[in-house]
Amino acid sequence: MKMIHIIFLVVSILFSTSNALTQDFCVADVKASDTPAGFPCKNAADVTVDDFVFDGLKMSGNTTNIISAAVTPAFVAQFPGLNGLGLSMARLDLAPKGVIPFHTHPAASEILVVLRGAITAGFVSSSANTVYVKTLRKGDIMVFPQGLLHFQLNTGKTHANAFVSFNSPNPGLQILDFALFANNLPSSLVGATTFLDLAQIKKLKSVLGGSG
């Protein structure tokens, strides 16, 4: 009886996989809820060519903000045709001294190509906390392994921009500074876990909109 259950499970998996392979695409129904497996498929009769086209990356992002930088995503929420395909993109725009602060993408690795300007980029390994940093210029490419803290900083005198690509339609994003200082985690706990003094923590919370 146990063997029958195992065979049934294997056949069920193969059957579902076979069905998935017979489907050319699964355009996201972004009106539905996202799930760990992605968005449900839009009704095929409602799919149009516009679901497979995204024009948002041709426009410069607004860099008038605290980080003097902008990220324009082409993830599945903005570009439904990516659903289930295992890839996405984004555009980075950085004014002089603009920065994409230390952040991680829990669900994807990232590859960056510089289109204009000079961008100093780097990441930190999780094992020995080894830092890998290099200043990149037009045409240079750098890869950031999945889940590792990394950053991009405009170290040139002019605006810089780049395209980044991910091996997931929804790579996820957590910015370290915002995770620490843009919430209501009590300052005493932040201090105990970061060794920063309370005055500095409260200053950063004030700048980034946190409380506590």
Walk me through what this model shows:
The protein has 212 residues and is an alpha+beta fold. Among the domains are: 60-172, Jelly Rolls; 178-208, no CATH class. It is built from 4 helices and 10 strands. It has helices at 2-21, 176-181, 187-194, 198-208; strands at residues 69-74, 88-94, 99-104, 110-116, 119-124, 131-136, 141-144, 150-154, 160-166, 174-175. The strands form 2 sheets. Strands 1-2-9-4-7 form a 5-stranded antiparallel beta sheet, with no helix packed on it. Strand 5 and strand 6 (131-136) form a beta hairpin. The longest helix has 20 residues, at 2-21. The model is unreliable at 7-21 (pLDDT under 50). Residues 1-20 form the signal peptide. GO terms for molecular function: auxin binding; auxin receptor activity; manganese ion binding; receptor tyrosine kinase binding.
Concise structural overview:
This protein has 212 residues and is α+β, with helices and mostly antiparallel strands. It has helices spanning 2-21, 176-181, 187-194, 198-208, and strands spanning 69-74, 88-94, 99-104, 110-116, 119-124, 131-136, 141-144, 150-154, 160-166, 174-175.
